[in-house]
Amino acid sequence: MATETSEKKHRIYSTSVGSVYPLYVAKAERKGRTKAEVDEVIRWLTGYSQKRLEAQLEKETDFETFFAKAPMNPNRLLITGVVCGVRVEDIEEPTMREIRYLDKLVDELAKGKAMDKILRKSS
């Protein structure tokens, strides 16, 4: 069995969040959602303030560092379902799971799901 150090990491780890962020915003806006809502779901997931989120995007922080430095919302574990053909709760590699959580939140936003449901707020 290969160890973590001998496995080749997926290229998304070294991709800057800032380069993918406009794609998240565009996906949401195509479905009538806003950049502010994209920022809200990212802040909810990561625990970053708006200022810190913008700084990470501006610095072109890669996904691995972006999630490693984030305080992360403990309620993110409530995110379940399939994104990119993979069940997010079954992803074992922690950083890839965080990336897929973000993908799932943006998907839910684009599908018109209510913000309270996206942010896993109890009713």
Question: Any overview of this molecule?
Answer:
Helix 1 packs parallel to helix 5 (94-110) and helix 2 runs antiparallel to helix 5. It is globular and about 35 Å long. It has a two-stranded antiparallel sheet with strand order 1-2. It has 123 residues and is mostly helical. The chain has 6 helices and 2 strands. The chain has a single domain (11-117), classed as uncharacterized protein sp1917 domain (Helicase, Ruva Protein, domain 3). Strand 1 (82-83) and strand 2 form a beta hairpin.
* C-alpha end-to-end distance: 45 Å
CATH superfamily: uncharacterized protein sp1917 domain
Q: What is the radius of gyration computed over CA atoms, rounded to a whole number of angstroms?
A: 14 Å
Structural class: mainly alpha
What is the CATH topology assignment? Helicase, Ruva Protein, domain 3
- Count of individual domains: 1
Number of H- or I-type helical stretches: 6
How would a textbook summarize the main sheet? 2 strands, antiparallel
What is the annotated CATH architecture? Orthogonal Bundle
The CATH first-level class comes to Mainly Alpha
Order of helices and strands: HHHHEEHH
Using the alpha-carbon principal axes, give the shape: globular
How much helical structure, as a percent, in the residues? 40-55%
